[in-house]
Design goal:
By secondary structure, the protein is α/β, with parallel strands linked by helices. Helix content is 33%, strand content 14%. Helix 4 packs across helix 5. It has one domain. The protein has a six-stranded mixed β-sheet, with helices on both faces. The protein contains seven helices and eleven strands.
């Protein structure tokens, strides 16, 4: 058999290389869609069989809880913190995560708890329920199935909070903290619980809803306008200065609660923008010199106090979005897999600011209790 000309072989090689290049370019261009599709459970929520519900009488249903939840011990802080964690479960098999998913639990323990519950360890006893959280995929789509999964997750959080109030709180000052998805659930939780139990509002030192959009025309509590104000709401969703796409996505794609437990788009309304550097919903640029301390506490032993880097970021509110300057340290950069980079960052730029803010509000609430006439 005659050998093919070298020119023909080169032509075939060039064609193969061109096809490979086209395929690689397509994968790169549509990589987000490809990866997002892998997280889709591909089953209607209406026919989905969710994981077993938690039993909040069992310690295993709580990711964080004091050693003696019914009886505060000497040396523990004088308040309680009810912490609703952010999304740690990617998706793929479930719309809502089993509470014992090992990878989701690892991310909570190593990343989310040290960075976002950590600021409140010295302020109050931490109660963080495990709940059947809606997967990361549900935050990437506006499909009705995803909204159903997020509404479903609320049932667990509400059950945990009511169990906590009945068995553990005993009238102590309370801080509610919710992060991202946990913050959205916290918005509804506060609104419903305060409506059915008005006396609860007098117990709340503050509610911190971090990376959470709350419409300013319908907040579940009055916004925190100044430090040491109590019974108020500190909510914000942030984007770095210059990240126009992220800031616009906050305004265009964020879902908020509407009557009938519906999740709807913000629809042009302005979100509440609490500036942690000012300690209130305040206009103007907060310079970096006000930043008490940012930290990357990922992997830190629970309860250990992290090292702080002060003066890392400044911040200002613009159209309801907290615009944050880029941090100076390389410790504050997104890392990990494609899904990790779409979760709440594994660092907290306002760690020390939140710690000081929450401590002052609890102290103000306790002082007001002492000053009020006793029956």
């Amino acid at each position: 058999m005659a050998e093919r000309p070298r020119g023909f072989k080169r032509l075939i090689t060039a064609a193969v290389l061109l096809i490979v290049a086209i395929l690689a370019a397509g994968v790169y261009i549509w990589r987000d869609d490809i990866l997002r599709t892998q997280l889709d459970p591909k089953e209607p929520f209406q026919t989905y069989d969710p994981p077993p519900e938690p039993d909040y009488a069992q310690r295993s249903a709580w990711a964080l809880m004091p050693k003696a939840p019914e009886t505060p011990t000497i040396g523990e802080p004088g308040a309680d913190v009810f912490f609703i964690g952010p999304t740690t479960y990617d998706g793929g098999r479930h719309w809502n995560a089993p509470i014992d998913d090992p990878e989701a639990d690892r991310i909570f323990r190593e990343v989310m708890a040290p960075n976002y519950a950590g600021p409140f360890v010295r302020v109050g006893r931490i109660f963080a329920p495990r709940y059947r959280q809606a997967s990361l995929y549900t935050l990437m789509t506006l499909r009705e199935d995803a909204k159903e999964a997020r509404r479903f997750a609320y049932g667990d959080v509400a059950a945990a909070f009511r169990y906590y109030l009945t068995h553990y709180n005993q009238g102590r000052p309370l801080i509610i903290v919710g992060v991202e998805q946990g913050g959205t659930l916290g918005t509804r939780l506060i609104a419903e619980e305060v409506a059915t139990n008005p006396a609860l509002k007098d117990r709340i030192a503050a509610a911190y809803l971090i990376q959470t959009v709350v419409a300013s025309d319908d907040p579940p509590l009055p916004p925190c306008l100044a430090p040491k104000q109590t019974g108020c709401l500190a909510a914000w969703a942030g984007a770095y200065e210059g990240d126009v796409e992220r800031a616009q996505a906050i305004l265009d794609r964020s879902l908020v609660w509407a009557p009938g437990a519906q999740l709807v788009n913000l629809q042009g309304r302005t979100p509440i923008c609490f500036n942690p550097l000012f300690g209130g919903v305040v206009d103007g640029q907060a310079p970096a010199r006000l930043n008490l301390g940012a930290t990357n506490a990922t992997g830190l032993e629970w309860g250990a106090r992290p090292a702080f880097l002060s003066r890392q970021v400044g911040a200002r509110c613009e159209r309801g979005v907290l615009r944050v300057t880029r941090p100076k340290s390389t410790s504050f950069q997104a890392t990990g897999s494609w899904t990790d980079r779409r979760k709440v960052p594994g660092y907290n730029l306002f760690y020390a600011d939140l710690e000081a803010d929450a401590s002052a509000r609890v102290e103000a609430l306790l002082d007001a209790r002492e000053a009020s006439p006793r029956p």
